[in-house]
TrEMBL record:
Classification of source organism: Eukaryota, Metazoa, Chordata, Craniata, Vertebrata
Region Disordered, residue ranges: 71-93
Family: Belongs to the CBF/MAK21 family.
Protein name as it appears in the record: Nucleolar complex protein 3 homolog
One Gene Ontology term of the molecular function aspect: chromatin binding
Location(s), subcellular: Nucleus, Nucleolus
Length: 710
């Protein structure tokens, strides 16, 4: 219990300021309001006073320092700028500007500018040549100079930047082709890096690492040039104009194509493929053709098939990604693949199995101790020889070629199924015609049905329908011999459409027709009836009357082969032979047109043809196509195929092939080329040779032309 005095004291303290923070001796209440009219002088007197002996300096606060005692702030005085010095600097700058204005730089004339540019360019060329020569002389010691040479790809002088960059691109490309080893350089493992090696090995490793890194940077530079051109992106430096980007890009693409073909074994070859394949479908025709030719060259020289497989995979994915809207030239490159003689189905008898060495138990049972010793030495030698030879086995080639063909056929079948009206269809049909003998037998029936459906649809051009016929007979001439399939509808289609060929736009289709006839009649002679052979020979001789000379030569050469293949067809040369029925030339069925009741009267018209080779072939066939005698053909004609003769006497240049010299002594030595004969007006010809004609009448001029070789 508390006393009354103590209780009263506690109540009094509760009405005052906090006794924990204030002086308890003060008797002023806690909640007393401040004086509203406190005097200003008293407030001022309470402010502490400082003596300003020197002006305050402006400080710059720095990062603090931390030690055991705590954080120590750091400051530094701000330097005071001298206004007088700034004024002097400004005056000096004004004087310098005035001097520059007073003495301006003299502008060079165009001639002087060209001379200066030529001088700069010559210096750059000498520098490039010096670096390249040093690298070629000793690649291992001077590999670092590749970086110096590559740095010139960023030439900043606007006068010579484009030319120097092109020269450096080509120089580096040739250098890499020369100094690159014939093997792929792999990265070193951690164990190999930590192993102690000799100086020569270390030098070789440094060379390989430097070569791979510089080669990688070089390819990245080429890729960037192509991207800049495609995106029309102007660099900040503005050294190279947008117009010059195309020239740089073309040189870069050409270098990439050269490296694609020359270094298929080296590092980053797949990266080059990924760059080249989209450019095969480029809008620029020159770049597209350049890339397609490079891929064709790679296919032709690739013996194993590893590089070809990589390209085929990328092309197939690209075509599918573009929904089959690409250039036909991309798919035409497939025709250059070197897989003509490879079978898709593995045949264990054809594959050379690797030699199996004897086990220790077999040696112990069959051989003596000395024989075992000799056998062991012999097997060791064989293993070393096999490793030194480093020849790829037939089984590995077969595996690569099989995978390549599978991708090719998948691409072809997808287009046949999903894009039948695509411009890629001719290339697909041409490819199927070439590789049809490699297709699996299980797909033959379905493929023949698809080809016949395409022909009957009427959506194909004449050339595309010929490719369908050619593909069908290539299928049947290979593994399709075992199938019981009647291709009569394809014979009928070709026989019916032969007269669509003429001396105009369809003349190029004659070559495909000649190939089809070779597969349909010559190679399938046992399945072809005599009536069918007679009908085709008669129609071919009629066709030879209204096509260009080279086509007539090819058709007559095919007729000669058919007459040798089917000897009984010589009855068409006898005008007095009679058979049952009447020849029906308008009938589209070769089996029922009664071709045995007609004669080859067309050969007598062709014997008077203006082309000398057509004359010889027609006279040769009239005589029965003999192999000896006066009417026999010379070896340069008899040993060539029909397609080769068609190409040899091509009229693509619109000139007589071969050119014909006139026999007139007054104009002896002059050659009437086809283009001049066709382009000159008849009246100009009359005036030109009026001195040699008795009269200028059209009748006499016609007689004059009849006396000429044409």
């Amino acid at each position: 219990m508390m006393d009354e005095d103590d209780l009263q004291l506690m109540k009094d303290l509760g009405q005052r300021a906090s006794f924990l923070t204030r002086d308890l001796s003060s008797s002023e209440p806690v909640h007393v309001k401040k004086r509203k009219h406190e005097r200003i002088i008293d407030k001022y007197e309470k402010i502490p006073r400082t003596l300003q002996t020197a002006p305050e300096k402006e400080l710059i606060h720095l990062l603090p320092i931390k030690d055991k005692s705590g954080i120590i702030p750091q400051t530094r005085e701000k330097p005071v700028t001298d206004s007088n010095k700034d004024e002097e600097d400004q005056e000096a700058a004004r004087e310098l500007e005035e001097e520059i204005i007073e003495d301006p730089i003299r502008e060079l004339t165009i001639e002087e500018h060209l001379i200066e540019r030529k001088k700069k360019l010559q210096e750059k060329k000498m520098h490039i040549a010096a670096l390249a020569s040093a690298i070629l002389s000793d690649p291992e010691s001077n590999i670092k100079k590749l970086k110096e040479l590559r740095s010139m790809l960023m030439e900043q002088d606007p006068d010579v930047a484009v030319t120097v960059r092109k020269l450096v691109i080509v120089s580096l490309m040739e250098l890499f082709k020369d100094i690159t080893p014939s093997y792929k350089i792999r990265p070193l493992t951690e164990a190999e890096k930590s192993t102690k090696i000799r100086k020569e090995t270390q030098k070789l490793r440094e060379f390989e690492e430097g070569l791979v890194s510089q080669y990688k940077f070089y390819l990245e530079n080429l890729e960037q040039m192509v991207k800049d051109w495609k995106q029309r992106k102007l660099k900040k430096s503005n050294v190279v104009s947008l117009k010059a980007y195309k020239g740089l890009a073309e040189v870069a693409v050409k270098s990439l194509c050269e490296l694609l073909v020359a270094l298929p074994h080296f590092n980053f070859h797949n990266n080059i493929i990924v760059l080249i394949v989209p450019l095969m479908n480029d809008v620029s025709k020159s770049i597209s053709e350049m890339c397609c030719e490079a891929v064709k060259k790679l296919f032709k020289q690739d013996k194993l098939g590893q590089a070809s497989l990589g390209v085929i995979k990328v092309i197939s994915g690209f075509v599918r990604g573009r929904n089959y809207e690409v250039r036909p030239e991309m798919l035409k490159t497939f025709l250059c693949l070197r897989i003509k003689e490879v079978e898709v189905k593995k045949d264990t008898e054809d594959i050379n199995k690797p030699k199996k060495f004897m086990t220790f138990k077999e040696k112990r049972k069959t051989l003596s101790r000395m024989q075992r010793k000799w056998k062991k030495a012999e097997e060791k030698l064989e293993r070393e020889l096999r490793e030194a030879e480093a020849s790829e086995s037939t089984e590995k080639k077969l595996k690569l070629h099989t995978e390549t063909l599978n991708i090719v056929f998948v691409t072809y079948f997808r287009i046949l199924k999903k894009a039948q009206r695509s411009p890629l269809l001719p290339a697909v049909l041409e490819g199927l015609a070439k590789f049809a003998h490699l297709i699996n037998v299980e797909f033959f029936d379905d493929l023949l049905v698809v080809l016949h459906t395409l022909i009957e649809s009427g959506d194909l051009s004449y050339q595309e329908s010929l490719y369908c016929v050619q593909t069908a007979f290539h299928i049947l001439s290979g593994q399709g011999d075992v199938l019981n399939i009647d291709p009569m509808k394809f014979y009928t289609h070709l026989y019916k459409t032969l007269f669509k060929l003429h001396a105009g736009a369809t003349n190029e289709g004659v070559e495909i027709v000649l190939q089809c006839l070779d597969v349909m009649l010559t190679k399938r002679r046992k399945q072809v009836s005599q009536q069918r052979a007679l009908a085709f020979i008669k129609r071919l001789c009629t066709l030879a009357l209204h096509v260009l000379p080279n086509s007539s030569i090819g058709i007559l050469a095919t007729t000669r082969i058919l007459m040798h293949t089917f000897p009984k067809t010589d009855l068409l040369l006898d005008s007095e032979s009679q058979g049952s029925g009447v020849f029906l030339p308008e009938l589209d069925e070769p089996e029922y047109c009664n071709a045995q009741n007609t004669a080859l009267w067309e050969l007598y018209a062709l014997r008077r043809h203006y082309h000398p080779i057509v004359q010889k072939l027609a006279a040769h066939l009239i005589a029965g196509a003999p192999s000896e005698g006066s009417e026999a053909l010379k070896p340069e004609l008899s040993r060539r195929s029909a397609a080769e003769l068609f190409e040899a006497y091509s009229m693509a240049e619109m000139t007589f092939n071969p050119p014909v010299e006139t026999s007139n002594p007054k104009i002896k030595g002059k050659v009437l080329q086809g283009d001049s004969f066709l382009n000159e007006d008849l009246n100009q010809l009359i005036k030109r040779y009026s001195s040699e004609l008795t009269t200028e009448s059209p009748l006499d001029f016609t007689k004059y032309l009849k006396t000429s070789p044409y």
